[in-house]
Predict the structure.
Amino acid sequence: MQNLFYNGIPEMDFNNLQSLNADRLTGLNKSRTLDYSDVLIWTKGNHTFKFGGNVQTLEAITPLGFNGADNYGTYQFNTKNSAGMFTGVDFADFLLGLPDQTFYDVVKQDNDGISAHYHFFGQDEWRLSPRLTLSYGVRYELHPGYSDKFGDIGNFDPTVALAGRVIYPQGKQDLLAQGFLASANACDPDGVTGTNSAIVNGAPCMQVQGNGTAGFPAGLSKTFPVTERFKVKAEGTFTNLLNHTNLSDPNMNLSSSSFGLVSGAIGSDFGGARTGQISVRAEF
């Protein structure tokens, strides 16, 4: 077994007996929202100006699973038509260690989705007379989708004709389900090496690219068109903006006395430090 970072037991499914399907015994569901807001009010003459902003940082941690007991294995002892494939009795098949179907996968980490929402406004209340007040203003909101601290969230780009393409977080190709992508006629199931160029029913192979390679930076960006061909693009990329401590993985060595213990934090080379980058570039 690999990477037993949570407690669980194998799943045993029977035909005539109650299945043992407790599967995962420990799991964490956690939601955290931090809200920062402020408003400035300025009164001058018949005008009352209001300017404000609100920033929310969101985090949602949920257990990640694919099928059955995942890392602990799922075993079926003829849960369909007959009582047992080998002996005629499903429990006897179990005692002999003869399942008719097994499933096993490796969950490396749980979901840890993060995002930030931004709201800004400005308004004026203009008192034209004791009986008439004119209110007007502008408001801007930005609600980006979730990303995952450790690369569990990818995306699908349908704009590539006939095949589309899979977008994964740059540098996280080790998390790709290569067998599944290969079954979908991916050009490069490992996200790096183009090993397939097959055309299926007239459709080319499906590209699998990191977000940087695909032209989707991991941050905020705004493009300002100057002419039809000349554009100015402003970008901002930030990692761990609030400088939270990100703990490293627990010790997974079963023979170690410190098995299951977390002994450190993620280093700066792996996204643990607070970093920020702002850039402006011209495209033509």
